[in-house]
Amino acid sequence: MKKNIFNVALLLLLAGCASVTIPSYIREEHPYRKTFYASYDTVLEATVQSLKDLGWEISKKTDPAVFERNRDQANAQIKQVLLFTDVREMALVLGTRYARMNIYLQASPSGDNSTDVELRYLTVTSVSLKSFHNYRNDGYARKLFERIESRLK
After folding, report:
1. DSSP per residue, 46-105
2. Between 29 and which of 73, 86, 94, 135 could a Cys-Cys bridge form, CB atoms 3.0 to 4.6 Å apart?
3. What is the C-alpha to C-alpha distance for residues 117 and 90, in angstroms, rounded to an integer?
4. ∠ CA 71-64-109, rounded to 5°
5. Partner residues linked to 100 by β-bridges
6. Which tens digit of pLDDT belongs to each residue from 84-121?
7. What is the CA radius of gyration of the chain?
């Protein structure tokens, strides 16, 4: 009898399906920022290679002004790009975790040969009928910035 109750409870727990939508654009909930003292093109290349080294694929490169109105649009000479990564899927015991990053790069407006890099990280954990969103991953942000730094040396 106890085995049947356990089986029914387990079936009900696993039977629910939560549809998970991972947006391409991640809002500025908890961004990680770092300035690298190298040219924009050099930092962009180092960032793309660092993402590949860590197993991420870039799905799209776009102008940040399409998604963010508060970015510096007055000076068209400032180089900037917004990178979208593909979604990563990680299986958990009772659910699935999905992760995506947006990386915003902008050349220094002052022309001092520096580039600002902003990382936005989103994970969505789907368990049965519920999804949990998290915009923080301090360790991964540090890991990516260290990888970019090492590629710039």
Report:
1. HHHHHHHHTT--EEEEE-GGGT-TTS--S-TTS-EEEEEEPPEEEE-SSEEEEEEEEEEE
2. 135
3. 26
4. 50
5. 122
6. 999 999 988 888 999 999 999 999 888 789 999 999 99
7. 20
Region 134-146 average pLDDT: 96
pLDDT of residue 2: 62
Q: CB–CB of 106/72 below 8 Å? A: yes
Residue 143: CB atoms within 10 Å: 13
Residues in contact with 108: Cβ distance below 8 Å, sequence separation at least 6, in sequence order: 35, 114, 115, 116
Distance between CA atoms of 128 and 126, rounded to whole angstroms?
7
- For the entire predicted model, the pTM comes to 0.82
Mean pLDDT, all residues of the chain = 87
Instruction: Return d(Cα 101, Cα 50) in angstroms, integer.
Output: 13
Token pair in block for residue 42: 């050099």
